[in-house]
């Protein structure tokens, strides 16, 4: 309980200055095109940091059972995430290829938590879309729906791969082989997935890595 309270206090302390930074950027007066671009970057960076702080708050509150499970339209979640990150991919001269091949449209999940899982996986992939490309694929597998994000960056450290294969990242870690990648994001994604009864994993490729989450099909969807 003390650990959870400590995370909540830390998250609150981090969120306040980030919110102030965002407001200050928005409050700046008229600017030329270059300065306007810098202001936009400041707002976007602060918003992404605030999202991660909010995710940490949710991790600390998972044991409270506040996040209800329900039928969730998996393609709609992926569409919303890709739309939010479209600006970031474009600004970093990256492209994202989205492929939908799933027949089951609804999964049993919490929409808010699933959004964060896909968001964190895609944010990692953006850093390593070497050749300018990353892929998001949704398909059916073994009676579940699988969301997979593929990048073409450096090799995934064997320790992280083993933890992902086990289905759970024990704690946030930095990845020297993948500077800029968020071990915190993988930790958050694994915690949220476990809460939803979903499975996370990773595949090591010679030219990058894939991260995925497998979600149970909604019973409501199976009725049809």
Describe this structure in words.
With 224 residues, this protein is an alpha+beta fold. The chain is 52% helix and 21% strand. It has helices spanning 2-27, 33-61, 74-91, 111-127, 158-166, 183-195, 219-222; strands at 70-73, 95-100, 106-109, 133-141, 144-151, 199-205, 208-216. The protein has a 5-stranded mixed β-sheet with strand order 2-4-5-7-6. Strands 1-3 form a two-stranded antiparallel sheet. Helix 1 (2-27) packs antiparallel against helix 2 (33-61), helix 2 crosses helix 6 and helix 4 (111-127) runs antiparallel to helix 6 (183-195). The longest helix is centred in the N-terminal third of the chain and has 29 residues, at 33-61. The relative contact order is 0.14. Mean pLDDT is 80; it is low at 1-7 and 176-180.
Offer a concise description of the structure.
This protein has 224 residues and is of the alpha+beta class. The protein contains seven helices and seven strands, in the order ααβαββαββααββα.
Secondary-structure element pattern, one letter each: HHEHEEHEEHHEEH
Q: From the alpha-carbon coordinates, what is the Rg to the nearest angstrom?
A: 18 Å
End-to-end C-alpha gap = 43 Å
Form type: globular
Question: How is the largest sheet built, in terms of strand order?
Answer: 2-4-5-7-6
What structural class do the secondary elements suggest?
alpha+beta
Strand percent estimate: 15-25%
Let me know the largest β-sheet: 5 strands, mixed
Give me the count of strands: 7
Give the helix proportion (percent range).
40-55%
Count of DSSP H/I helices: 7
Tell me, rounded to a whole number, the average pLDDT: 80
Indicate the multimeric state. single chain
Uncertain residue ranges: 1-7, 176-180
